[in-house]
Amino acid sequence: MKKKILLILSLLFVSFFEYITAQEKVAIDSLEQFNDLDEVVIIGGRNSERTVVNSPVAIDVIDVRKIEKNSPQLTANDLLNYLVPSFNSVRQSSSDGTEHIDPATLRGMGPDQVLVLVNGKRRHTTSLVNYQNTVGNGSVGTDLSAIPVSAIEKIEVLRDGAAAQYGSDAIAGVINIILKKNEGGSASISYGITNRKDGENYNFSGNYGTKLGTNGGSINLSLVVSQRNKTNRSYENNLDKFGNNFAYEFAPNPEQARAEDEQIMAAKGLTQRDFRFRIGDAQIKNQQFFINAIYPLSDKFNLYSFGGASLRQGEGAEFRRLPSETSNVVSEYYPNGFQPLLKSTIYDISNATGVRYYYNNWNIDLSNTLGQNIFNYKVAQTNNASLGVNSPTEFKAGGHEFLQNTINLDIAKNFNHIFTLAFGGEFRYEQYQIKTGEEASWGRYDKFGNIVTAITDPSNIIAAGGSQGFIGFSPANALKKDRNNVAGYADLAFKTNKFSGDIAGRYEHYSDFGNSLTGKLALRYEYANGFAIRGAFSTGFRAPSLQQQYFNNSFSDISTSGSGIVSKGIFTNESILAKALGIEKLKEEKSINASAGLTFRPSKNLYITADAYYIKVDDRIVLTSEFVNPIIQSYGVEGARFFTNAIDTETKGIDIVATYKLNIGLGNLTINLSGNYTQTEIVDFHFPEVFGGNINEYFGPDQTNIIESLSPKTKATLGFVYNLSKWNFLVRNTYFGKVTRDGYPFGKVQHHDPKLVTDLSISYDIFKNFTLTVGGNNIFDIFPDKQIYENSYYHVFKYAPVQMGTTGANWFAKLNMNF
Q: In angstroms, rounded to a whole number, what is the distance separating the alpha carbons of residues 650 and 656?
């Protein structure tokens, strides 16, 4: 029924559009006031006259100033997810730190294969490694949502390999966030809630800009305070197909465990409902402040500084512990069992300060950019069962930090508006550390209260150690590592009446793995007025991050055989265990990127692009499956995972983007149609000889699934924005293609059908500077297909966090004021 209603609305809209356009002719010149295709873009090359239209590579420009009032999305991640089809980001559930920072991908590549810039300067990544078998497993991304939307003027998305221009990470493309520098101020307050009356979100944002000095300087300040409450999308009673609580499937003696819980429930008048899980979005609180300032020191020198601070506090739910799990539960504290809560405190700090010198078409830019991400964990509503009644119920579980400092010197000169020569250098320092949690968060104690560090008499070990839900980082995990990188580049851009292009080369030396030399050639030829062909070929690389090289969370556990204490978890490639298995030190990923496209602009109000691309990545870094091997067992290890250059991949795809703008009646209409098809395949595996060709043991089907088919191969957006006097109307349909989820080794392969999500908003200018907006995201309450029993973790996870996620319809009201 919903699809029929949507189809009828679309047909009515198209009929109305065809009728209006048949009745009146639109003067092209009258469209200049709302056409932004000719705006100069910073990204994609050093040519200061580059625009979206004449670029030799594919670039999207999202004018955040024009859409922030009426958009149902409140973060940069969410905005891009619904406006750029080749961009994907989905909130995760019960996935440790990953549900507090959403992983994002571009053109089907990993979160760490897209480079993020702010005002053209490299943005630091997070300290978080995604390792919970989510999209981007084994990668380290950049937290776009740490930058308040109220601070953003526009977002430029370069959909092409650019490692030769910008360095490591730019295999899939580059996202450049341009901060506001306008004068005047604005403020908005909004409230939203889902169809299920949960997930309430509150948002206050403010922006103020003014002149700085008397010679063209400016300062712009932005603030956001927001809260998104938790949701619950679990099955109502968490029962298995036999009507029993799912967790019994994992008990050594399921019948005995079930009988024990039934006795507990009967004695207390409880039912299965009292043992329900909460699965859904985490609660997130944000406080963010950003500044962007320019101060002319003279008519040739400008001093600039920008950056900000973000504090995020998250609370997500881990897996529930049932009362019959006596090795995990201190029954004196939790007679009915408990569901642990993982709390995060995330600090994100950045600043870029520099000077620019302009003289005789020379542009010299010297800058220093500092960024730091600090991620601390706390586990609440839990226990360390090995401590019994002496256990705390809340633990500081440690954390991790990443710091990056970059010094840049960029020099460019334009020659007669034909050639632009640019060259420069970069020095980057990076530091990563893992911090220890309090002892009880990771320690296992014997019945005498002594911490256990080696295999001992099993009879002295009465229960599991560490904080249930998330085991803290131990002294064995703690480390502090750093490295530096030196780079030099040269870039020649040219532009004539018909031809334009770029030739770029870059050399980099890393202190921890060696050298890299990359190059790029991009060309555009306008064979007729408004019609052009373009293409690019480049080599690229991505250096293994410090997080991938050194993250480890191995912990002590009771052997499944009951023979004593063993280790499990993720181990570094420098560990004795890795060397025994023949797992090599990480090396850089190497890539080849080729693209070819057509651009059509038959008039000022119509622009169409189609770009096909091919990306080959050798020695791609991934996180292995957890495996058991006789060699690791001889080291007292029962399950191990490693970061390795285990696979080669090929990605093929096409992007199509069309924009049409016209006057209708007294208003103007903008139609945006865009689509993406991406297919990634693993074409080769590399793994140690000790596995004897057993790929599934080293990199199982579930891991292959994450790379090849867990994200939609097809995604498309059709949006209509109509402005009429005091009114603004937005209707946007987003199509998410089929995805596949492989529940290996416990579940099965399930295909999730394509889905269509509709956003709607209506804005009205109550007064000259006051605007009220109401609307919704996913107004028809569309969800991914329900998971089959085998993949639902025995009727806990009702939906997989794929496609549009598991929030459902979200309605909002927003009041915006300009001053």
A: 20
- First vs last Cα of the chain: how many Å apart? 45
The CATH number of whichever domain residue 657 belongs to comes to 2.40.170.20
Segment 352-391, tens digit of pLDDT: 999 999 998 899 999 999 999 999 999 999 999 999 999 9
Phi, psi angles (nearest 5°) of residue 566: -130, 170
3-class SS of residue 193: strand
Q: Which one has a higher pLDDT value, 260 or 697?
A: 697
Average pLDDT over residues 285-302: 95
Q: What is the average per-residue pLDDT within 90-114?
A: 91
Average confidence (pLDDT) over 789-809: 88
Let me know if residue 259 belongs to a domain.
Answer: no
Distance, CA of 422 to CA of 440 (rounded, Å): 56
- Please report, to the nearest 10 degrees, the dihedral formed by the alpha carbons of residues 796, 800, 804, 807 taken in order: 10
Q: What is the per-residue DSSP string for 514-581?
A: EEEEEEEEEEEEEEETTEEEEEEEEEEEEPPPHHHHH----EEEE-TTSSSEEEEEE--TTSHHHHHH
Of 97, 96, 129, give the one whose Cα is nearest residue 112.
Answer: 129
**Is the bond into 745 cis (omega within 30 degrees of 0)?**
yes
Q: Are 369 and 121 in contact (CB under 8 A)?
A: yes
Q: In terms of pTM, does the model score above 0.70?
A: yes
Residue 684 covered by a domain: yes
255 found inside a domain: no
Q: How far apart are CA 116 and CA 126, in angstroms?
A: 12
d(CA 179, CA 156): 11
Decide: 490 and 504 in contact? Cβ < 8 Å: yes
Query: Are 156 and 60 a contacting pair, CB within 8 Å?
Result: yes
pLDDT digit string (tens) for 574-626? Answer: 999 999 999 999 999 999 999 999 999 998 899 999 999 999 999 999 999 99
Helix (H) or strand (E) holding 116: strand 114-118
Summarize pLDDT for 166-198 with one digit per residue, the tens.
Answer: 999 999 999 999 999 988 999 999 999 999 999
CA distance 638 to 652: 39
> For position 42, what pLDDT does the model report?
76
Contact residues for 306 (Cβ-Cβ < 8 A; gap 6+): 118, 119, 179, 290, 291, 292, 293, 351, 352
Q: How far apart are CA 705 and CA 682, in angstroms?
A: 10
Locate 178 and state its tokens.
């341009």
pLDDT of residue 26: 34
Determine the Cα–Cα distance for residues 703 and 729; give it in Å rounded to an integer. Answer: 43
Residue burial 278-299, b: 16+ Cβ < 10 Å; e: rest: bbbbbbbbbebbbbbbbbbeee
- On whether residue 200 sits in a domain, the answer given is yes
Nearest-angstrom CA–CA distance, 453 and 750: 42
Total number of domains constituting the chain: 1
Give me the residue label for tokens 């993406």.
Answer: 676
Q: Which residue has the tokens 């300290």?
A: 127
User: Mean pLDDT over all residues of the chain?
Assistant: 88
Helix (H, G, I), strand (E, B) or coil at 262: helix
- Given a cut of 70, is residue 458 above it in pLDDT? no
- Of the pLDDT bands very low, low, confident and very high (cuts 50, 70, 90), residue 561 is low
Apex CA 330: angle with CA 333 and CA 455, to 5°? 155
pLDDT digits (tens, 9 = 90+) for 635-649: 888 889 999 999 999
d(CA 457, CA 569): 23
Domain extent, residue 202, equals 2-238+276-818
Residue 17: pLDDT over 80: no
